[in-house]
Design goal:
Layout (H helix, E strand, L loop, with lengths): L3 H10 L3 E6 L4 E4 L1 H7 L17 H16 L4 E3 L6 E3 L5 E13 L2 E10 L1 H97 L6 H32 L8 E4 H13 L7 E7 L4 E4 L1 H18 L5 E8 L3 E7 L7 H4 L21 H11 L3 E7 L3 E9 L3
Parallel strand pairs: 8-10
Antiparallel strand pairs: 1-2, 1-6, 3-5, 4-5, 5-6, 7-9, 10-11, 11-13, 12-13
Helix pairs in contact: 4-5, 6-7, 7-9
């Protein structure tokens, strides 16, 4: 291969186009691959300038580049990273990549160019580039679609959460409504039960007593007649009590009652109440009143307070046995009055104490004693309207103490 024949073989059979030109750019040697590449017949390019193979628009500019290269020759590749075009004999253009070198002989300076048609590679590169661009574009679309999907999922999730929250709220509202309805039904049942019992008993007593009074029409039966008259009066009073409780409850529920404080003497007021209630007490029962504090003048709703006193003292009388003492105490301080009513009656069962102020509620040990179960509920509403509080202490068989605290208005 070191022989002249060997180099000639490399030149002739090389798959790359090889062109040798002199210092003036005249082609002096072309291999078959180059002739085929540019569409020329054998030796047809010999004697033509290199610019013959360059598109017309680049030819003039190329002449300067060629001359400059021969002044400072060095091996280099042309076309890498740039679009380099060549021209065939039929003037069609194609992209090439050229490796350029120079050499000197006794005959002068020469340039040798190795030329590759990169049209297919460029097309593939363009296809690859387009594919990459398409992939990038598709990736961006997928990314945006994914973001949009995530946003839609997030929005749907938020809507679902809001729907669940709304359902929970509706569920709570329905539960509250059902609870209220159940409570109302319970109240209706308890009212019907109370009314049927509490109204029937005194009415039966009145009917039977009136029938007997008609028979006892002689002087000898006067005592019996008076006894039945007393029973009728007692039954009528009980019916009046029931109706008053129902009327008071109705007015409270409808907001027809308002707190209307007036100035009065709490000691005189309490003594009058005690005197009235003492007349209704059982045999041997005594109501003892005590006041603590220098100030006797209060500013409270006198009607509300009277109903509170009467209701609690009536209960004390009702649930205490004969010959027992009932204590009423009022104590004034600078800002409030404390009212204490203590009896030594049957007391309240532990399990009943938490429901004591509910409407129509009767304690387990009070079912055989007359009452509507409304009194304490009405008392608490009066106290609330006067911005006060009520509490109690009780022990079965030993009695109950109610403690009321009311702010002194003015």
């Amino acid at each position: 291969m070191n022989s002249k024949e060997g180099f000639q073989a490399l030149f002739e059979f090389a798959t790359e186009g090889i062109i040798v030109s002199d210092s003036k750019g005249v082609i002096i040697k072309v291999n078959p691959a180059a002739e085929k590449l540019f569409g020329y017949e054998h030796n047809e390019l010999i004697g033509k300038t290199i610019e013959t193979l360059i598109p017309q628009k680049f030819a003039h500019h190329h002449k300067g580049i060629r001359e400059n290269y021969l002044k400072h020759p060095k091996p280099r590749s042309m076309g890498l990273g740039m679009d380099l075009f060549a021209k065939r004999k039929d003037d069609s253009e194609f992209q090439v990549e050229i490796s350029l070198s120079s050499f000197d002989t006794s005959e002068g300076k020469f340039a040798i160019a190795f030329i590759i048609d990169i049209t297919v590679r460029k097309q593939q590169g363009d296809i690859l580039k387009k594919t990459n661009n398409d992939l990038h574009e598709l990736s961006e679309k997928l990314k945006n679609a994914n973001l949009e999907l995530e946003k839609r999922v997030e929005d749907r999730t938020l809507m679902l959460r809001e729907a669940i929250f709304e359902l929970e709220q509706n569920k709570k509202e329905i539960s509250i409504a059902l609870a209220k309805e159940k409570e109302l039904n319970d109240l209706k049942s308890r009212f019907v039960s109370m009314a049927s019992h509490e109204f029937r008993t005194p009415l039966s007593t009145i009917l039977s007593s009136v029938a007997l009074i008609a028979k006892y029409n002689t002087e000898e039966t006067e005592d019996k007649r008076q006894k039945h008259i007393t029973r009728v009066k007692s039954s009528v009073n009980h019916l009046t009590e029931i109706l008053n409780d129902l009327l008071s409850l109705s007015k409270l529920e409808e907001g027809m009652l308002i707190c209307n404080p007036v100035v009065f003497d709490i000691v005189d007021f309490s003594k009058d109440i005690v005197q009235d209630m003492q007349a209704l007490s059982k045999e041997g029962q005594t109501i003892v009143y005590e006041h603590i504090g220098d100030d006797k003048i209060v500013n409270l709703d006198i009607k509300f307070l009277k109903n509170i006193f009467i209701n609690l003292l009536s209960n004390a009388i009702k649930f205490s046995p004969e010959y027992h003492q009932i204590d009423l105490k009022t104590e004034t301080s600078k800002n409030e009055i404390t009212i204490t009513i203590k009896d030594s009656g049957i007391g309240i069962e532990k399990e009943d104490q938490k429901r004591l102020f509910e409407r129509f509620f009767r304690g387990q040990n009070a079912t055989n004693i007359q009452g509507t179960g409304l009194g304490l509920n009405i008392v608490t509403k009066y106290i609330e309207m006067m911005k006060g509080t009520i509490g109690f202490e009780s022990e079965v068989g030993k009695g109950t103490t109610f403690i009321i605290k009311l702010p002194l208005i003015g």
